[in-house]
Amino acid sequence: MNKDSRPRHLLRRLHTLMADKKDGQSLLNEMVGIIASNMAVDVCSLYFLRDDGILELFAAHGLRQEAVHKTELRIGQGVVGLIAREGVPLNLAEASEHPKFEFRPETGEEMFHSLMGVPIIKQGRVAGVLTVQTAETRQYAEEEVEVLQTVAMVIAELFTSQLVSDKNLKAVSVAAHSVTISGKVLAEGLARGVAVFHEPKVDIVNVTSENVDEELDRLDSALSLMRQQFDDMISGSDVAQAGETKDILETYKMFAYDRGWQEKITKAIETGLTAEAAVERIQQDLRSKMSQAHDPYLRERLGDLESLSSRLIRVITGHYGDEEHHRLTENSVLIAMNMGPAELLDYDRKLLMGVVLEEGSATSHVTIVAKALGIPVLGRVKNILVETQEHDPIIVDAVAGRVVVRPSENIESTYGKSLGERASLLEKYAAQKSLPSETKDGVKIDLYINAGLIIDLESMHETGADGIGLFRTEFQFMVSATLPRMEEQKSHYSKVLKNAGKKPVVFRTLDIGSDKIVPFLKQTSEENPAMGWRGLRMGLDRPGLLRYQLRALLESAAGKELNIMFPMVSNVSEFKTAKALFHKEVERLDVLKKTKPKRITLGTMIETPSLAWDIEQLLPEVDFVSIGTNDLFQFFFAADRGNPELSGRYDLLSASALRFLRHMAQQCQQHNVPVTICGEMASSPLEAMALIALGIKSFSVSPSSIGPVKMMLRNINVESLQSFMKTALNGGEESLRKPLLDYARQNGIFD
Fold first, then answer.
1. What pLDDT does 596 receive?
2. Could you give the CA distance from residue 190 to residue 112 in angstroms, rounded to a whole number?
3. Is residue 275 scored above 80 in pLDDT?
4. Rounded CA gap, 429 and 423, in Å?
5. CA of 317: how far to CAs of 123, 202, 210, 340, 419, in Å?
6. Whether pLDDT at 266 is above 70
7. What are the φ and ψ backbone dihedral angles of 316, each rounded to 5 degrees?
8. CB 28 within 8 A of CB 46
9. Residue % of the chain over a pLDDT of 90
């Protein structure tokens, strides 16, 4: 038989078999025999997942028949349990050498060496495992893995048969009790609503087809319709028109033209699958690759293709006509493995309270769009799809980093109060918007916001902030498949300056590298990317890229004030080199007789201890400095601030950290150089109070922190606070957190 026709022949035989009116067990027994014969293997075994979480051997060809319905494995137990737990294929030339291998004597499998297994997936959830084995040691070809995955899709149809009710099988067992799951905060906030599954898995009824040309036509028609949907979305949404959000959607739309993705789907159709089954087949591959990918950009790209596959399946099967599912009727929380940015705009923003993802990252496209919409997002929430049912009440705490499914009355009441208190506080913050950010004794404290999207500038006006203390320019580059053209960059920066009006904006040059990946630059693998090739280091090694951006900034600020700072500077010579490149671009404007900015200031982020201890030599070279406390103190303490095991070793109010900051603040005052604190430290009212006590009078914080920090500073007396700090730092305390809290309570600062 021709190699290419073998999969189609196998699918036809299985489909014919399933059409016979046989009892479930006879059906399974014949099925594993047909698979073993077609794939030329010695063993084919079929495990189904019971509703008690046990994998039971339901049928086997080549093993002892007395093991059927007796051999049982827990999820994660043995290589079969591992396949079920991870939901990805396993290809082993010598199964016994795998650390998870468990020998089951009742099966008589001691004579077999190789093993290949794939999960049986129903509606996006593992329902069982299909394995093949041979007596010889061999590595199965990639094509064989694909064939077995395709067969597993056909077997998944059994879950619509009488076999399910007979044997009480379930793809997932969902508990009815309250469940709390931790996650990673991607977009901060609190939310409460009913669980809504984003684009619930379409139940693919027809898996195989004899008419390849007809299925290819269905695929082409669906791709055309989906692309038109993106065009309509980009042109018809106010959010989609907002600068970089449009860039994100345009980039996402480009994935719908990915030739490699389409070719794989076409190849799957040619094996005998329907168009929708072929897309799902390739989608399963994408999920498998995502689970193994370590490169952040690759994971994001695979994630976008995976969410695009779900959308395409719905278009093919006609489930994208009435958009009924996207018509929310009450406050809702979206639950998904992952989402593309376009999908978020399908929902009513008045009723969409939050998003919970099993995957997701802080720099993913959907997170960036969610932040622009003000929607709390929690990512990396393991098993949220398993633990949740549609319409379950759910609470998203994207502050503490947890989600509560089916909360108890006590939890519901507690969070209800928290949400009420949060709403009350927001009203108080809004009421003080027009009040000056001054202390009780009349000391002016400048409060700026950190921003990265044009839509963020709305927060500057809403909060009454003094300007933008940190505008992250890298987002425009991260969402573009190619280097943004000069005109695109100039237009972007011009919009920022126009929206800011008379308020100052400090542009930080590209801070890419580490976890901020841009598609058009090859990223080398680094053992410690946070301390690797990133920020200005990359800019100086790629001076063309840096000068291109500086040129765009200069031309966009013609006749206006321009403030620029460089990130991740390690020593003074790096700043001098960057400064020289900048002045070459200024000279170029003179030569071309183009209008220059009316005023220019150049500064730097202080994020490395090496630059902090060289501050006396740095200050004569700069117009201002911004202390980036996030990276600086991660290096200062030699502790990853995101590692919960090290939380007790990362105290920003330790005496050593405060003395370090005091030294820098005093040096800036002596040289008459403005200093601003950027980072999480300035966003916390208690930490910000300590910073004011050290003599720092300028902060750049997240928009949501403007209100609480402003309320705090309007309740303090700087002279009294500085006197307290001077005494406390000389008092021998290792941490000033408790003394500062006691001082705040005694003086009614947080009342």
1. 94
2. 54
3. yes
4. 10
5. 15, 8, 18, 20, 40
6. yes
7. -60, -45
8. yes
9. 39
Among 311, 318, 316, which residue's Cα sits nearest to residue 345?
Answer: 311
Question: Please, which residues have CB within 8 angstroms of residue 235's CB and are 6 or more apart in sequence?
Answer: none
Give the whole-angstrom CA distance, residue 483 versus residue 510. 12
State the Cα–Cα distance between residues 699 and 442, nearest whole angstrom.
17
What is the residue-wise DSSP string for 594-634?
PPPPSEEEEEEEE-SHHHHTTHHHHGGG-SEEEEEHHHHHH
Of 134-138, 142-146, 226-230, 679-683, the least confident? 226-230
pLDDT at residue 429 greater than cutoff 60: yes
Per-residue tokens: 70: 């007796």
Q: Tell me, what DSSP letter sits at residue 653?
A: T
Closest CA to 57 of 124, 4, 2, 108: 108
Q: Which of 339, 336, 354, 347 is nearest to 308 (CA)?
A: 339
- Length of the chain as a residue count: 751
Q: Mind giving me the DSSP string for 21-48?
A: ---HHHHHHHHHHHHHHHHT-SEEEEEE
Backbone angles phi, psi at 318, to 5 degrees: 80, 20
Q: Rounded to an integer, what distance in angstroms lies between the CA atom of residue 520 and that of residue 512?
A: 12
Which of 326, 324, 321 lies closest to 345 in space, CA to CA? Answer: 326
Q: Are 302 and 289 in contact (CB under 8 A)?
A: yes
Closest CA to 362 of 241, 188, 496, 518: 188
pTM > 0.85: no
Contact by Cβ (8 Å): 187, 371:
yes
Distance CA 186, CA 425 (A): 22
pLDDT tens column, 28-81? 888 899 999 989 999 999 998 887 778 999 999 999 999 999 999 998 899 999
Distance of alpha carbon 335 from the chain centroid: 14
Three-state DSSP class for residue 451: strand
How far is the first Cα of the chain from the last one, in angstroms, to the nearest whole number? 81
Give residue-wise pLDDT tens across range 313-362: 888 888 765 455 567 888 999 998 877 766 777 788 788 999 999 887 76
Distance CA 350, CA 373 (A): 10
Q: Classify 716 as helix, strand or coil.
A: coil
DSSP 495: H
Three-state secondary-structure class, residue 54: strand
Rounded CA gap, 387 and 180, in Å? 10
Closest to 531 measured CA to CA, from 632, 655, 661, 387:
632
Cα–Cα distance list, 90 to 130, 132, 561, 668 (Å): 11, 11, 59, 59
Read off the tokens for 187. Answer: 């977009």
| Nearest in space to 295 (alpha carbons), one of 526, 59, 111 | 526
Surface-to-core class of residue 31, CB atoms within 10 Å of its CB (0-12 exposed, 13-18 middle, 19+ buried)? buried
Amino acid identity, position 621: E
In the chain the domains, ranked by start, together with CATH numbers, are 3-167 (3.30.450.40), 179-419 (3.50.30.10), 432-522+531-746 (3.20.20.60)
Residue 133 has φ and ψ, to the nearest 5°, of: -140, 155
Strands lying side by side in the sheet with 184-187: 179-182, 402-405, 393-398, 189-197, 332-336, 352-357, 377-379, 184-187
Beta carbons of 155 and 30 less than 8 angstroms apart: no
Tokens 């899709």 belong to residue: 153
Q: Are 334 and 196 in contact (CB under 8 A)?
A: yes
Tokens 């035989």 locate to 13
Count of CB atoms situated within 10 Å of the CB of 501: 11
